[in-house]
Amino acid sequence: DWTMRAFREEEIAKIRAQVGRGKVICGLSGGVDSAVAAVLIHEAIGDQLTCVFVDHGMLRLDEAKTVVDLFRHHYNIPLVHVDASKQFLGELEGVTDPETKRKTIGRLFIEVFDAEAKKLGGADFLAQGTLYPDVIESVSFTGGPSVTIKSHHNVGGLPERMNMKLVEPLRELFKDEVRKLGRELGLPEIFVGRHPFPGPGLAIRCPGDITREKLDILRKADAVYIDQIRKHGLYDDIWQAFAVLLPVKTVGVMGDGRTYDYVVGLRAVTSTDGMTADFYQFDMKFLGETATRIINEVKGVNRVVYDVTSKPPGTIEWE
Ligand code: XMP
């Protein structure tokens, strides 16, 4: 793709001009965007870049392993893997307001990056995989000076007093362009084709307060759901699919016993840029089979519902 080849060359020149001999740390989230940003920046400045992968305790199943394997073993890009789950989950204890969750997570990310930068003898820049829609949506929904819908942690959620300057080479791109760029950079297809995953992770898929128990249930339910989608060959038709753990318990029956367990909500949408989206029209047989599998395989869940809301009026994530 010639446009992406040209973009790649231009951005490499821009990154070199911005960074000079400075040191950069890049936060990896497990998503496509930060991975593409990291590989591009590495190409531009080599070992002036160190990647930091923060496990905040709200990642999907096996996320950390996937990311660490890709960067350390496939790319040989220096990577620091920080387990900050105690710190994040500790500070989020009892927090139920979505914006407070996002802001808390944004602040902690910066604290962790700052601390890691110090350990590396200082860093001048923080690199992020911010995309064009993130920039717009954190400013306003319509582009005008109206309300903030959500503080994306990699845009509006960052504290102002951060010491590092930002490097955001994907700021003008949409998701499909980032994927093209990722392919151009030789990222494996299985990684490039992944559904988007938000920086605040499972925190915003767990409305209400967040506990380790809830996160464990959510991780398992989500893994079963995604496995079903892959097995049915639907993964690439869907922009994003994930499970949400609702903060309610409902009554059910299993064998001759009464159960009182959590409800899992399933979300799947089609979209081209995440700014608008339509709920995905699964067939009922698929949904029924998936519900049965989740309830049988995930302890603590006795009911599954499907979200049939498009965006607008719903957002893709529940918080
Ligand atoms: P919403 O929920 O706003 O999501 O309709 C639109 C797209 O953005 C992703 N998203 C985020 N990505 N940090 C991110 O990196 C965030 O804080 C964040 N919030 C939402 C969401 O997963 C969807 O793809």
Number of strands: 9
Alpha plus pi helix count: 10
> Which structural class best describes the helix and strand composition?
alpha/beta
Supply the CATH class of the largest domain.
Answer: Alpha Beta
- Give a short account of the largest sheet: 5 strands, parallel
Strand content: 15-25%
Do you know the CATH architecture of the largest domain? 3-Layer(aba) Sandwich
The Rg value, from CA coordinates, equals 20 Å
In summary, what is this structure?
The chain has two domains: 2-192, HUPs (Rossmann fold), CATH 3.40.50.620; 211-306, 2-Layer Sandwich (GMP Synthetase, Chain A, domain 3). The protein is of the alpha/beta class and 319 residues long. Helix content is 41%, strand content 19%.
Write the SSE topology:
Layout: H1 2-19, E1 24-28, H2 32-45, E2 49-55, H3 63-75, E3 79-83, H4 85-92, H5 98-119, E4 125-127, H6 132-139, E5 165-167, H7 175-184, H8 189-192, H9 212-231, E6 240-254, E7 257-270, E8 278-279, H10 284-297, E9 301-306
Parallel strand pairs: 1-2, 1-4, 2-3, 4-5, 7-9
Antiparallel strand pairs: 6-7, 7-8
Bound molecules: xanthosine-5'-monophosphate (XMP).
The site of xanthosine-5'-monophosphate has 15 residues, from loops.
GO cellular component, one term: cytosol
Enzyme class: ligase
Protein name: GMP synthase [glutamine-hydrolyzing]
